[in-house]
Each structure stands twice: as structure tokens, then as C-alpha cells.
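Format is chain and fold; as here:
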Amino acid sequence: MRVRTTGVFLLLIFVTPLLTPTVIADWDDDNWLWNLIGPERLEHGDEFACHGYEGVDINEDNSVIGSCKDYLLGHTNSSRWGAEPISFGVPDYITNDTISSLLSSGFLILGDNLKTNTDDFFIIQRNGGSLEKNMANISLLESAERDSLISIYWEARIFDLKVREDKPAIELLENQDVWYTTWGEWYNHNLSSSRISVNSTNSTITLGLSDSANSLWKVPGSIIINSETSVLDVRYDNGEQFPELENNSKSLQEGWRVVDEGIILSISPGNQVIIDFEDNLSFTHSPLKTFNQLHHSVTVVGHHVKNLHEWASDFYTSPLKFTWLIERPAALEMDWRLPVIAIAVLIATPLTIRYLVAQDKSIREL
């Protein structure tokens, strides 16, 4: 009977910690946002956008919308083009109160599976499937429309399960002639492209892109000048040479290059560029929707990003660019009973073993 009682006691000691719940309290910070990984991803050209707080429905608690923005701003810039987060990953449906909170917090772009109709934001829909193994929309990746934006889902971990990436789909994307971009960059590039001014005198064209007081980011815009006249020189208005673009450049930057139809240029806000042609010219011009006249654009959207290292670790050497939907992680607070139980186990285990050995010895001596 004593042995049975001791066994039950031992069982309770070891099972109680397993049955004792942890308590979620307060909020944690993802240190990778400002240590090593975050700065590297910013330099690479990624965007840090908002997704709220872990486990909190933004429709039920609108306060996390502004709090998520403050959390990001407190630790990192949103992009190499601007500090303010302008993109938010929302649920499939959002309420009018949520829309008001998103507007008052300054968000411009929502995605990426929204079914609620709203004209207050630029909406980006998920259309490329997922980078989870066998979940990519390969047919779309191979036959996307010119100047379209392909937005692909990525989540590195679902609960405690690590998600396997689709390596053939990633390899396909990395070998396509596409512009690697982000939600905010793509949106602002189109706005900047539409604002490029064009003035000509004889054999010279002057391009300008003024700073916009309404724009939170300073993103270059792109234009094509259609002309059969040869280009002699391209320079900033201060006389410095304007950089040339490689035809395989897939990351947004200032520069120019000659194409069959004439010349394409990407220019940053606040700059003026002068193009000298060989002769007096006739020309037409139009904004470019896709940088460097590439076929279309691609971004991968990281969802529920609570640990940037885990979400980005499979892509450190990849040219793909990510729109990271950052979610502030919940902090786990240990139940106060656990240390007490641990001390009890520490004391009780050797005493119990000693007791059992003594009992066994007594039985043998009978």
C-alpha cells in the first residue's frame, strides 16, 4: 500500500507541470527587427508592414492598429524609401470602425484576401498562391500579364510546425525577368511615374520629379521616351553623370538605358535629369508601370511575422523581395506555481528514491 501511495505521489509530481497552463501576459519584442536581420532585409529592399498583435482580431480591438504602427516605428524604418508603415495585412472582412482606424493611422494599402468593399485604400489581392510546398500558382507565375503584380503568400511556421518551402517555385521566380518589389514600393513607383515632368528644347529633354508633400515615401518613378534619335549624354542638372541601368537589373534604382523604342529612365523625387540627343527630335513619352521595362512584378508577403529570423532564414541568398506583415508577439509569463513545483520535485525526488531503496532493502531482508 505504501509503495502504491508513493507511486501516485511521484506521478503527481511529474504530471502537474504538464497540466499547469502558461499565462499569456503583456507583449514581447522581436529583436531581429533591429539586430542583424532587420537592417539586412531593409538594405536588400524589403518592406516592413503591419499585421497587428498576436492573437488579437483587429475588428474586435482597433487599438492594435495604431499600436502596431508605433511598435514598428520604435524599432525600424518601414522601407529604404521611407520610415512610415503604409501597408496593413487585414482579415478577409473588416468593419467600418476598423476602416476608420486604418485611415486615421495613415495606412494606404491593404491586403491580401480582403472581401469587404472599400474605396478608401489601394487593395492588393493574393494571386500567386503560397511558397509552401506544392501550393504556388505555377500557371500564373508562368503566364502573368505584362505589368501585373504577383503577390505570393508565405508563412514560415504554423503553430509549432515549420512549413516546407516550394523550392521549384522559388527557382522559377528567381530565374524570371521580373521586378522584385514590395507592396509599398510598387504602389509609390506608379504614383511617381505618373508625376514625371517632361520639357524639350531642340535636341534636349529635361525630366523632373518634384517632391510631393503628400507622399510618405520618396520612391523613384520610371518613364520611356520613344524616339529614333541617338542619345549623346544623360546627366543630372548639376552636371554629374546619370547612372546606367543593366538590362537585367531587377531591383528599383535610379538609372537609364537604351531600348529598341528609345530610352527608359528611373528618377528619384527631387532630381532633374537632362538628356542630350544627336539631332533635333520628335518623340513621345509615357510612364512605365514596371521598373526597367521588365515583364511584370513579384513580391512575397510574409504573414504573421513574429520572429523575422525564422521567416527569412530560407531566403538569405535569394534576390526575392518580401513585404513582411509584422505581428507583435505575445509574451509568455510562467505560472507562479511552476517554480514552487520545481523546488518540490527537487526536494521530493531524492527523498522518495531513498525511501523506495530502503523499503526494497527491508523486503529483501525478510
